[in-house]
Amino acid sequence: MQTTVDLFLFAGQSNMAGRGIFCERFPERAPAVLPGAGWEYRAVSAPGRLFPITEPFGIYENNPDGIHENLKTGSMVSAFVNAYSAGTHIPVVGVSASKGGSVMAEWQPGTVYLTDALNRVVAAGNWLNQNEYRIRHTFVLWCQGESDGDAGTEKEAYLQGFNRMLGAMLEAGVERLFLVRIGQCNVEGSFARYEPMMEWQEEIAKTNDRVTMVSRLFSTMRDRGLMKDAFHYYQAAYNEAGTEAGENAADYVKKHGREHSRTEEIRP
Q: Within a domain: residue 39?
């Protein structure tokens, strides 16, 4: 008997990879993934089976010729999976593909990061189809943009780059990109540093019919003391953003999922 799952590629830069820690004021740890809510497919390190999702998510998935991210401490993935699965009653199979400090130019067709990410999700899809799983949907959860803000990337270059990246993802069989908007910079005198990027991401979600904004919570974290440094968050913040994103993604799928459901193998 086949098990129906939704396949998610978790991609972007460091706040998707996760830099979560705890402290006395914010003692929350990443939640345990609920039984049956989701598994990790490790395309790089162990492609022959599924693993329970644990944090730091994707810690074993370093590819010396592609995405190599060795600073993971705790992400939004576990909270997202719990909320999404609770809302849809469908388990998630997650694939890690995030790289801290990466700019949009490094996520273009033919680059090592995007090529590696797509190879990972294709490998996951093919393994699932060959092992008594039915893939109901294939999605991306994406959080990226701080490094482009730091680099001074122009709006047109960022928007065009995003569309090229998304086009390659759609060609590989991804149906929709769920977008987690970036937050603010926690540096004195630079509080508005990422506001243009947040505006561009709002524009993307409003104008691209394959993109859905699922969380804006990171922009509230600085004023609440939930940023652990200039760019990253305590685990409590990742838990909040992941839960909101999972709930909103689940709501979208419940309302619109039948319009886009696919059961065929995703394409290499």
A: yes
Q: Count of residues for the chain?
A: 268
What CATH code is carried by the domain that includes residue 210?
Answer: 3.40.50.1110
pLDDT digits (tens, 9 = 90+) for 150-186: 999 999 999 999 999 999 999 999 999 999 999 999 9
Which pLDDT does position 258 carry in this prediction?
A: 62
CA distance 155 to 160: 8
pTM given for the model: 0.95
